Amino acid sequence: MDIAERPYALLAELTYRCPLHCPYCSNPVRAAESVELDSEEWKQVIREAGTLGVLQVGFSGGEPLQRKDLEMLVQVARETGLYTNLITSGMGLTERRAEQLAATGLDNIQLSFQAADGELADRIAGVRNAHDQKLRVAKLVQRSGVALSLNVVLHRFNIDRLRQIIDLAEQLGATRLELANTQYYGWANRNRPILMPTRIQVEAAVRVARAERKRLMGRIEILYVLPDYFTNRPKPCMNGWGRRYLTVNPAGFVLPCPTAWEIPGLRFDRVRERSLAWIWKMSESFNRFRGTEWMPDRCRSCPQKEIDFGGCRCQAALLTGDPSNADPVCEFSPHHRLVREAADRRADRPAIDSLIFRQNP
Amino acid sequence: MNSGAPNNRPRLARRVRLQIDAVSGNPVLLHQEAITVLNQTGYEIVRLCDGTRTLPEIIQDLENRYSAGKSILSREVLEYIEVINQKGLMEWT
Question: Is the CB of B35 less than 8 angstroms away from the CB of A6?
Fold first, then answer.
């Protein structure tokens, strides 16, 4: 089997429960159901993923620390030979849990920050003192010996303070910093007109990120995720549908991408009824946008089709109503103006206090 | 090189795992959201970066096993380690 014909990373969304209320949350506005997979079911998922060729697992959510069996699941993943990453807000990480996670062989902790200054950060998270808790958690992680990386979602209210965010990553001893512009899916899409930065902000941020990446090369890996609304070519979303990644959501549904749940007309299979291998190879959802056959004519004749794979299906569905359309980020999409107008909108940008905060189960 | 003084000993950073991929049989470096596939020579080099050997010792070890000329081998090994170092995947003790 070729490396591209098997999944190589699993995103295990253990729960949708989360103590934070970030307005840019990309989880579905309405989750399928609230019954979560139990420990035995997750163990089975992890082992099946290993057999299928998966090399990495990200434990995510919601907030994965809400699950008491997290340490045990990390251990199972390590025994299966998987590279393990914990994607967390840090809320709920005690010294004891940090030490236990380190003892299981956890490879990396990706800690989210909302901004570099506490006041703004707490305002975005919707929780008082969340920022201070995260600063404490970063120190706990350092002491535990597990590698630390930081993730900051960027938007109109924090993108001008990129340098301070990078300083924070340096101070906390992070080895990687992901600067991810907000992706407008799920809950985030409700707040799009409020969160969207201006083109001037975006261009200034790119310059800072480039310079800092160079300065910190070899010490901190800086990943800057471009805001696709400000580009003319779509991102190679998931490196192609059903090509490298799988996501298992809290209820056990298996998705080709974490936000695919909201694509209308797609039916997903779940690990309670089918094996992961069957779902990966045979399921309707994983085959629906595989390869290039499903593409509209304009995409099928495009030299970029094996490079960007037609962009993002979720975005096509969300903006045009049809997931098999070209991603409107593409300048050749007949719907491209939807993206352009949203990006270039200048007047009437609502203030920060009009943000709609995430409500969690 | 960032910290590649002759007496420094490189080893893979804590966030990186060197492993043999069971499906393809290839040695791979696993790190966050990335997989770097190594060739056999790369694997031999990286395996020696375990924090106990200096750069000259790593080169000496490889020389004993391969017949390439010393200067070519030395340059290639240093370049290879530097590429991994630039990605932030190496630590120096």
Answer: no
pLDDT at position A30: 76
Q: Do B33 and A56 touch (CB under 8 A)?
A: yes
Residue with tokens 């009009």: A354
- For β-strands A254-255 and B10-12, DSSP reports them as unpaired
Q: From the centroid of its chain, how far is CA A56?
A: 15
ipTM of this complex: 0.91
CB within 8 Å: B88 and A176: yes
Enumerate residues 6+ apart whose C-beta is below 8 A from B61.
B48, B53
Per-residue pLDDT of chain B (93 residues; tens, 9 = 90+): 445 566 789 999 999 999 999 999 999 999 999 999 999 999 999 999 999 999 999 999 998 888 766 677 889 999 999 999 998 999 998
**Cis-peptide, bond into residue A62, ω within 30° of zero:** yes
Handedness of CA B29, A178, A255, A311 (dihedral sign): negative
Q: Are B16 and B84 in contact (CB under 8 A)?
A: no
Per domain, the residue ranges of chain B are 10-92
| pLDDT value at A61 more than 70 | yes
User: Dihedrals φ, ψ of A293, to 5°?
Assistant: -65, -35
Angle subtended at Cα A319 by Cα A318 and Cα A321, rounded to the nearest 5 degrees:
70
Q: Which amino acid is at A110?
A: Q
State the Cα–Cα distance between residues B93 and B89, nearest whole angstrom: 14
Dihedral of the alpha carbons of B64, B69, B75, B78, in degrees to the nearest 10: -10
| Topology adopted by domain B10-92 | Arc Repressor Mutant, subunit A (1.10.10)
Torsion angles phi and psi, residue A56, rounded to 5: -135, 145
The answer to whether residue A29 scores a pLDDT higher than 90 is no
SS3 A151: strand
Query: What are the distances in angstroms from CA A342 to CA A228, A319, A345?
Result: 12, 11, 5
Shortest CA gap B36–chain A (Å): 12
Q: Which residues of chain A neighbour B33 with C-beta distances below 8 Å?
A: 9, 56, 85
> What's the burial of A350, exposed, middle or buried (CB within 10 Å: 0-12/13-18/19+)?
exposed
